[in-house]
Amino acid sequence: MTAQFTSSNPVQASLPDALKHYFGYDRFRLGQQSIIEAALADQDVLVIMPTGGGKSMCFQLPALLRKGVTMVVSPLIALMQDQVQALVDNGIGATFLNSSITGLEAQQRESSILNGDIKLLYVAPERLLSDRFTPFLNRLKATVGLAGFAIDEAHCVSEWGHDFRPEYRQLRNLRQRFPDTPVMALTATATERVRQDIVQQLALRSPVVHVASFNRQNLYYEVRPKSRNSYSELLDLMRQTDGSGIVYCLSRKKVDELAARLQQDGVAALPYHAGLSDRARSENQTRFIRDDVRVMVATIAFGMGINKPDVRFVAHYDLPRSLENYYQEAGRAGRDSEPARCTLFYGYGDSKTIEFLIAQKVDPATGEPLEEEQRIARQQLRQVLDYAESPHCRRTIQLSYFGERFDGNCGNCDNCINPKPVEDWTVEAQKFLSCVARCEQRFGMKHIIDVLRGSKDRKVLQRGHDRLSTYGIGKDRTADAWRTLGRSLLHQGLLEETTDGYPVLRLNAQSWAVMKGQQAVQVAVVPQQQDAPDLMSDRAKADVQMLLDLLRSLRKTLADAESVPPYVIFADSSLQLMARQQPQTLREFSRISGVGTYKRTKYGPRFVDTIRAFCEEQGIPLQDDGDEAVETSSPTPPSGKESGDRSALSRSYYATLELHQQALSPEEIAAQRGLSSRTIYDHLEKLIEAGEAIALDQLVPPEDQTAIWQAIDAVGDGSLRVIRDHVKEAYEYEPIRLVRAAWRNESKIDKTTDPF
Q1: Global pTM exceeds 0.85
Q2: 112 inside domain
Q3: Which of 54, 235, 495, 567 is in Cβ range 3.0-4.6 Å of 29 for a Cys bridge?
Q4: DSSP letter string over 246-265?
């Protein structure tokens, strides 16, 4: 039963006391108290408050101070469970009804609700509006009372929102069925168009609208060009940043590939996308939230309602679909108001992928294109491209998208910290704005640029715009230069653009001030970068391609042997670097992007041998590989291979094991099998680590084992050289390798937690 709180005048006198009583906070966050007062006055309310701003409190506290039950509409089971658990932990009567509980549990919870033990009930929109749920709602209203509806993630109701869900449209029926029950709609992001759509779709009556600032001052925004080095940059970002992180990708395939690659490079990462089973998604999300793993690699299927305040970085490895998507997804970083980094890797090729996805928006019944949705999505894509390519303050562009003015120079984005050169483009701006006026403010940026540059485009000629005074006056500038100016005018508020899917340019008072010479226009200009000339000869290119084919063939052989996709062995980008750089030693091989300690040891010798053989055939001088191979770390058994699982090792290893059990020394085994002693020690090392019956005392004296074991305890098991240095080179590498294998096997047996 919820702890009761009474007051003769709860709205005016006791809200801070109630806040302290129920939730333990001493003061409200900005805007919360006025929202709660409106709710307690039974007014409809629309709350637009960024992630981390305290939206939940806006409906939870009024629910506790009003008679009856407040119904909270939430789109995700995980979100319901998180919020209900937090309320229950505060001694507050709250529960949820969804598909994760049994029929018997649902009946028990309904009885508890009707007995007055519950103040907040979380349900999905489908259940709330179902015919089977209607009798319970009517009974609830007649007995305990229905205090109000709280529609969380309300942007889902609008096709202009970043996560439109058709079932949310049906929530309009609540007003018809319960005309006297107040409604509060809440979301973290919504443009003016989306706000209007929410009010209309939910039939809110003269709602109190609260729009908090969208400025997340603790977030650092940056855009990096996508290149062959982007993975290395991402890896460096993770290594330089403490705490948890999220990496967003466009496709499920990219998520799986990137998660596997990060795991191979020692990053505790898991995938999340709609192609995984419900159970797998739930388990991965739980492990991320509980810090069992550090990084979640995901599609946009992940994130809504994730209650993890300490995410320190969010990286978009692919282009987001809209600025609203980006703001929402990047905003999952730093919910605790501590500094966090938001990085977007931008490659123009990503836009082609999004355009393909947009083209898939068709009517499922007829297969005909949903032209309205496609048009909206294409405009949203153009806005993302503008953001990624702009030299202006990232914050200014984001806040402008939501209708909030910001004067620039935030001091916490890449463009403000490393500003681009600024030039006076007042004359060019006057030409541009004048052309918009001459075209009667009825066209988009492309058409204006075509007129300025004297294009013979059919649409220009048909409309007679080749006869305008502004026709051809901008031939001295490239289309890209005019596009840069147009975007700059929009970002600076010197020009406006409609947002109804038809991006038409419109003038405002500041536009006319520029044209009259009353205001100067400064434009940040990105210096044109010239591609470096390809100095590689035709022969060298042919060699690279030939070696690349050999490496791909080797990768396929290894992948087939392990029953895994080839990209799990090495990504294409890593193979291309190998083909170009041709590393002939393990030390050089380890410097290739995508080669971690595990892969260097497991695959390095095969790939280096292939590269060296190729170089020898082509007459390329060979380098001495020295004795570095002995310093590499041994690979741990493949995932899923438990200690003693004989399928983890080949028959050759067990042939060595049988001879060892006959009391033969490693040198005798090598001679009998026609192998090198080094290979036999490698077998013995892996057999020990796999938990096989190796008599270590036959190989290493017990007193030497003790000294080496203590050294590993002190410096770790990562490097043989570090261990040998610690024992002052009193022992050779072979006994150190064998003792380390025993140390690792014991550590593996003792480990009781997940390795991530």
Answers
A1: no
A2: yes
A3: 54
A4: EEE-SSHHHHHHHHHHHHHT
